[in-house]
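Researcher: We're teaching a course module on how sequence relates to structure. For the next exercise, students receive a sequence and then see the predicted structure as tokens, so they can try to spot secondary structure elements on their own. Here is the exercise chain.
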Amino acid sequence: MQKNLVLLLILTSIGAPSFSQNTRISDPNTIGWYAFSANIKLNKVWTLNSEFQWRRDKLISNPMQNLLRLGINYSINPKFSVRAGYALAETYNYGDIPLNNLGKQFTEHRSWQMVNLTDKIKAFELSHRFMLEQRFIGRYSNAQMKKEDQFIFSNRFRYMFRVQVPLKGNTMADNTPYLAVYDELLIGFGKNVNENVFDQNRLGILLGYRFNSKTRIEGGYLNQIAQLSREVEGRNVFQSNKGILISTILNF
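Model: And here is the predicted structure for the students to work with:
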């Protein structure tokens, strides 16, 4: 009996990966995300935030997505802040299996709310970012349409954990290089979410340099796993996007 049980467990463990692979389609892409952020501090507690991301496929040659995000931040204390704002995204036809089933680019409008918690353990700076997004995703009612005529509402929850540590000294002083690692999980919810309750996961490993309190730059490796909201030939589609991320952050 025990031998039969062991044999059954071995056969199940061998068969599970092949079954999982047969029910999924992988679409690998080589990406480059180039980001610019500017923050304007109005007083001790209020800050205006802006961010633009130029996302490209094949590192830089093909358009992937343009994302503009605007917000206002309120600092409850040095370790706890809240933020809200608006985002505009334009997504293009990229990869072997486009996000849009008609292979068309589409516009997305978002409102969003965010809570950010920070802490420090010795030289390590930690942050937890919780975000809610209300998404209005453009859709074409038929292939002859040249512009989206419908916007589908969807919700998404995001959680990001980030840790960074200076590579010189124990504090993030001026003229300091640093290492940063983050992971972000994105979960869709609500009645209009189809296949992609698990929406995305993003892992970044970055080297940065803080010139002063107003300017820093960071760049490195980005790994994005994203699930399409629709099936292709009865199978789920997962993008496996790997490439680089380069960010410039300015504080005024």
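Model: If you want an answer key for the exercise: The longest helix spans residues 2-22. The chain has one domain: 2-251.
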